[in-house]
Amino acid sequence: MRIAQKSIRLRARRRGFHLITEEILSELSDVGTFRMGMCQVFIQHTSASLTINENADPTVRMDFEMYFSKSVPENDPEYQHDYEGSDDMPAHLKSSILGSSVMIPVRNGRLALGMWQGIYLCEHRDQGGARNIVVTIWGE
């Protein structure tokens, strides 16, 4: 078994759901050397998250943002953690709901995503800044 790991710094993005599959793949020259294995993509932040979903129609990403904005509203008077802005506590909640990592099988030197699947960076802050990702691949 072999293991490869890479740290990737993603540029700052506005609040929303952003496809980052190609950006991740462009940094993963090692993936082509694995016949089979697993790839974990992990975000080192508590106010942004990762998920896998539809990669073709951008309205899906818009609907994700709409849904999470309705489901986890800002300015709830019951939030105690509010000193970093009205978007901070909702961002932490959204991040916990979606999660900080995704696992993708590696098959024949490629991520075995489905035809219509892509990796999303889910930016939950208005000004989240650059985001750090750690990608780990293990297998044969």
From TrEMBL:
<dbReference type="InterPro" id="IPR035917">
    <property type="entry name" value="YjbQ-like_sf"/>
</dbReference>
<dbReference type="Pfam" id="PF01894">
    <property type="entry name" value="YjbQ"/>
</dbReference>
<comment type="similarity">
    <text>Belongs to the UPF0047 family.</text>
</comment>
<protein>
    <submittedName>
        <fullName>YjbQ family protein</fullName>
    </submittedName>
</protein>
<dbReference type="InterPro" id="IPR001602">
    <property type="entry name" value="UPF0047_YjbQ-like"/>
</dbReference>
